[in-house]
Amino acid sequence: MELDSSTSAVVTGGASGLGRASAEALAGKGVKVAIFDLNKEAGNAVAQAIGGSFHKVDIMDEASVEDGFAAARAAHGQERVLVHCAMASKGGKTISRDKETGAFKRMSSEDYAFSAQGILVASYRVASIAALGMAGSEPVNADGERGSIILTSSAAAEDGQIGQVAYGSLKAGVNGLVLPMARDLMDLGIRVNSVMPGIFATPPMLRFKEFNEKMWDALNASVPFPKRLGRPDEFASLVLEIAANSYLNAQKFRIDGAIRMPPR
Asked: What is the pTM of this model?
């Protein structure tokens, strides 16, 4: 697929981190980018900087997502690329100790369900709404391609650590969407792939550096090569290749400097 001014994209979580880097990289190719995020101030700032548009969207809410896509399409036309980076999750071990009573407690089903909504259901919601729009559009090339859907999973999908029972299993679920969804959409010319980032220097990690530099250095040293956290622009570079390369379909791409997460 050609990435130029004739192409439109939607990036969820585009106000910061991996989403912002993806939005900036796509815009750098001339793509018209719509940013979905809850952070209006940051989202508008990024949109203005890249010549795109911002739409306040809650990925947990069906109507909010549908309204966001309608507004993005009104601004830029039918998106051909979706990059889904936004998520919501709660952490916790399956069984842990209550700090007050010392008794065993379990991660509640409600907390797990919240994470399922914020990771897995939201991924399906955003991807399927994008696919519905793409399906009714004209192909963009001789292959009959109509769009590229790129979901964000995590290295935790394969290396889930202690306290990541929800995050790890549900990011694995995002990977599980890829093949059946790609097969569902193959006759429509819509590709589906996921990216599994390792530890990246996103704003939450950079804040972590401020109060625990020793741990920050240990995290960098834990990456086999290069011995540093990933840069958001490196994630975005992979996003560009997946979007542009029409032969990449139904794949899960790990980008992590060869790290394999220990239990903790």
From this structure: 0.96
